[in-house]
């Protein structure tokens, strides 16, 4: 059976990466608008005739597109920030908690997670659920992304301009991802988020530092690691690096999973067990955006979630 797919924002950074992952699939037929991609009538027609649509647009344009969808049978996956904490939308992170995969599969409104939130939530949500990080506790997040995370405009800035080698940003502590991360982690205190962008194209490291001995449960590195291993048992795209491996590591590059839909979690700890650094590695355009959107597309269409993904 062939399903029709319309990508609104087909020529943008995430849109192009989605096209790369679905072109050549015999179970999908792409509706492409080409030069008519900004024509509201062409978009309205495509948005209402496809079996599924993926919105790869700025937030305001995504809201406009959602308002244009009148056909109740159309499954909408939105890659923007517009609906990530909105009622009536299903958060498109199938591995986030038991039952989430089924919730995505049964939904017609799926919000694709942000790239930083994907790494953050994978590390923190299971630990909050297990009571190892208190739900009302302070949690910090330090992260670095390649410049493709900022879409076409940032790519042009870094590839055609005279960019910084590295740039800390989000300095007002009001990054648009904070509500999404706080809510879906089950935290009550806003996450303290310190993002940065590096002068390389793609890939990210998302890090949560923990003072283990200051946590009420005083968990060891092994207990933290065990909780993550248990949470992702059987997951196809999320894996936890073995402690023997992390103990032997002297460095970690953000580009290690580029081109894949995989997310790898690492638990680094000091020898006396007082501190830990939890580090997620992912491709911001893979499991952080376009790969995740295709995984969600597969689920809403009732297909194997890994179709077309590595
Ligand atoms: N880049 C990343 O790593 C990630 C991005 N996202 C999110 O995905 C969304 C898209 O981001 P990204 O692909 O990076 O952005 P880009 O800037 O690379 O692409 C945006 C696309 O949206 C189209 N567009 C912009 N305004 C309108 C409009 N008013 N009507 C119709 N089309 C419009 C553009 O069209 P045109 O081609 O004509 O210019 C372009 O194709 C954003 O919401 C972003 O936050 C999410 C996770 C990660
Ligand atoms: C390097 C860079 O600028 N990154 C983007 C986030 C990319 C991403 O996660 O996309 P969403 O905004 O859709 O979630 C930023 O911080 O705004």
TrEMBL record:
<comment type="similarity">
    <text>Belongs to the NAGSA dehydrogenase family. Type 2 subfamily.</text>
</comment>
<dbReference type="GO" id="GO:0005737">
    <property type="term" value="C:cytoplasm"/>
</dbReference>
<keyword id="KW-0963">Cytoplasm</keyword>
<protein>
    <recommendedName>
        <fullName>N-acetyl-gamma-glutamyl-phosphate reductase</fullName>
        <ecNumber>1.2.1.38</ecNumber>
    </recommendedName>
</protein>
<keyword id="KW-0028">Amino-acid biosynthesis</keyword>
<dbReference type="Pfam" id="PF22698">
    <property type="entry name" value="Semialdhyde_dhC_1"/>
</dbReference>
<keyword id="KW-0560">Oxidoreductase</keyword>
<dbReference type="InterPro" id="IPR010136">
    <property type="entry name" value="AGPR_type-2"/>
</dbReference>
<dbReference type="Pfam" id="PF01118">
    <property type="entry name" value="Semialdhyde_dh"/>
</dbReference>
<dbReference type="GO" id="GO:0006526">
    <property type="term" value="P:L-arginine biosynthetic process"/>
</dbReference>
<dbReference type="InterPro" id="IPR000534">
    <property type="entry name" value="Semialdehyde_DH_NAD-bd"/>
</dbReference>
<feature type="domain" description="Semialdehyde dehydrogenase NAD-binding">
    <location>
        <begin position="4"/>
        <end position="104"/>
    </location>
</feature>
<dbReference type="InterPro" id="IPR023013">
    <property type="entry name" value="AGPR_AS"/>
</dbReference>
<dbReference type="GO" id="GO:0051287">
    <property type="term" value="F:NAD binding"/>
</dbReference>
<dbReference type="GO" id="GO:0003942">
    <property type="term" value="F:N-acetyl-gamma-glutamyl-phosphate reductase activity"/>
</dbReference>
<feature type="active site">
    <location>
        <position position="115"/>
    </location>
</feature>
<dbReference type="InterPro" id="IPR036291">
    <property type="entry name" value="NAD(P)-bd_dom_sf"/>
</dbReference>
<dbReference type="InterPro" id="IPR058924">
    <property type="entry name" value="AGPR_dimerisation_dom"/>
</dbReference>
<comment type="pathway">
    <text>Amino-acid biosynthesis; L-arginine biosynthesis; N(2)-acetyl-L-ornithine from L-glutamate: step 3/4.</text>
</comment>
<keyword id="KW-0055">Arginine biosynthesis</keyword>
<dbReference type="InterPro" id="IPR050085">
    <property type="entry name" value="AGPR"/>
</dbReference>
<comment type="function">
    <text>Catalyzes the NADPH-dependent reduction of N-acetyl-5-glutamyl phosphate to yield N-acetyl-L-glutamate 5-semialdehyde.</text>
</comment>
<keyword id="KW-0521">NADP</keyword>
């Amino acid at each position: 059976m062939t399903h029709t797919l319309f990508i609104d924002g087909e020529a943008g950074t995430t849109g192009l990466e989605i096209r790369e992952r679905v072109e050549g699939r015999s179970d999908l037929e792409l509706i492409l608008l080409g030069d008519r991609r900004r024509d509201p009538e062409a978009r309205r027609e495509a948005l209402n005739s496809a079996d599924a649509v993926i919105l790869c647009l700025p937030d305001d344009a995504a809201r406009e597109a959602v308002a244009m969808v009148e056909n109740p049978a159309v499954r909408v996956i939105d890659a923007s920030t517009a609906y990530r904490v909105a009622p009536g939308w299903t958060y498109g992170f199938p591995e986030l908690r038991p039952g989430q995969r089924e919730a995505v599969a049964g939904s017609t409104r799926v919000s694709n997670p942000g790239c930083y939130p994907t790494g953050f939530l994978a590390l923190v949500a299971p630990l909050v659920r297990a009571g190892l990080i208190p739900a009302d506790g302070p949690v910090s997040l330090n992260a670095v992304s390649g410049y493709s995370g900022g879409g076409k405009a940032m790519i042009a800035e870094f590839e055609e301009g005279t960019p910084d080698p590295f740039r800390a940003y989000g300095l007002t502590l009001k990054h648009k991802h904070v509500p999404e991360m706080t809510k879906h982690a089950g935290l009550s205190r806003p996450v303290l988020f310190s993002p940065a962008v590096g002068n390389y194209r793609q890939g990210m490291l998302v890090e949560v530092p923990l003072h283990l001995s200051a946590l009420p449960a005083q968990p060891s590195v092994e207990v933290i690691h065990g909780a993550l291993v248990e949470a992702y048992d059987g997951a196809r795209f999320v894996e936890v690096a073995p402690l023997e491996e992390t103990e032997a590591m002297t460095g970690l590059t953000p580009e290690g999973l580029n081109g894949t839909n995989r997310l790898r979690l690492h638990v680094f700890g000091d020898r006396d067990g007082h501190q830990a650094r939890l580090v997620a590695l992912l491709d911001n355009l893979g499991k952080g955006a376009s790969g995740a959107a295709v995984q969600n597309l597969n689920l809403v269409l009732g297909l194997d979630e890994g179709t077309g993904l590595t």
